[in-house]
TrEMBL record:
The keyword Transcription regulation applies. SUPFAM superfamilies: Chorismate lyase-like, Winged helix' DNA-binding domain. This is GntR family transcriptional regulator. Keywords: DNA-binding, Transcription, Transcription regulation. PANTHER family: GNTR-FAMILY TRANSCRIPTIONAL REGULATOR, MANNOSYL-D-GLYCERATE TRANSPORT/METABOLISM SYSTEM REPRESSOR MNGR-RELATED. SMART domains: HTH_GNTR, UTRA. The keyword Transcription regulation applies. It comes from the Bacteria. InterPro entries: Bact_HTH_transcr_reg, Chorismate_lyase_/UTRA_dom_sf, Tscrpt_reg_HTH_GntR, UTRA, WH-like_DNA-bd_sf, WH_DNA-bd_sf. CDD domains: WHTH_GntR. Gene3D superfamilies: Chorismate lyase-like, Winged helix-like DNA-binding domain superfamily/Winged helix DNA-binding domain. It holds the Pfam family UTRA.
Length: 255
């Protein structure tokens, strides 16, 4: 990785540095290799560490780099290719082995913004199901699924234990409800502490947040807030409305 003259470049210094670093990653580094520390890189390129961090953060967002706890900044492997379905059948537990895996379920008051979407009272407890999406042995997404009691009216009659078993009970009852449709939005966000831990990321790392509202009987039956690793996933929407995560090399091969 050589030095470069940045002072005469008109575009932002961090953006030009990002381009230089990206080229170096292709030619000088192998997947999983650890980059020199920030002080060494900043000195080598004659830039402030703040400029270097901007460039590294952009490369992380693009999936070229990963920041790993106790390791440092490494060259990222190719993005994982996996289809992610939001179809109702996944809730019943009958989906493929590599699907959303229930982790826990609790009954608690939802955040005010969630309560407003669910149209429940601000102090009304709801079921909160936590699931993890695993593919090729790697956690690529974490989800919080908020379900009001009105969507699973028979659940109170079931002696459901806590943890994953109760989560599966809630999902099965939701599956029986039937849905009229769904809508969703995608936005860039930062990993919260809980999500970062489950996804093996650092808190504040870039993530893609997919919010899905499930509709039934003219109202909102459930609300999903799923957090995807931005360095691992590229989300695409097919004709069916399902989400897919595609390997970034597939796009190159198809073009």
């Amino acid at each position: 990785m050589g030095t470069t003259q940045l002072e005469s470049v008109q575009e932002p210094k961090y953006w030009h540095l990002k381009t230089v670093l990206s080229e170096a990653l292709d030619s000088d580094f192998a997947v999983g290799e650890i980059l020199p520390n920030e002080r060494e890189l900043a000195a080598r390129f004659g830039v402030a560490r703040a400029t270097l961090r901007q460039a590294l953060e952009q490369l992380e967002l693009e999936g070229r780099l990963q920041r790993r706890r106790g390791v440092g900044t490494t060259v990222a492997p190719p993005r994982v290719g996996v289809a992610v379905s939001t179809a109702q059948r996944d809730w019943s537990g009958g989906g493929p082995a590599e699907a959303w895996q229930p982790v826990d379920c609790s009954v608690a008051v939802a955040p005010p913004s969630v309560a407003a979407v669910l149209e429940v009272e601000a102090d009304e407890p709801v079921h909160i199901v936590r699931r993890i999406r695993v593919t090729n042995g790697q956690a690529v997404a974490a989800e919080l699924l908020y379900v009001p009691s009105s969507s699973v009216p028979e659940l109170s009659a079931i002696d459901a234990p806590s943890g994953p078993a109760r989560a599966r009970r809630v999902l099965r009852e939701l599956h029986r409800l039937g849905l009229d449709g769904q809508d969703r939005s995608v936005e860039l966000g930062s990993a919260r502490v809980d999500d970062a831990k489950e996804l093996d990321r650092l808190p504040g790392a870039p993530v893609l947040v997919v919010t899905t509202r499930y509709l039934a009987a003219g109202g909102t039956a459930a609300l999903s807030v799923a957090t995807y690793r931005a360095d691992t996933c590229r989300l695409t929407f097919g004709d069916s409305g399902d989400l897919e995560i595609s390997h970034h090399d597939q796009e190159r091969q198809a073009s």
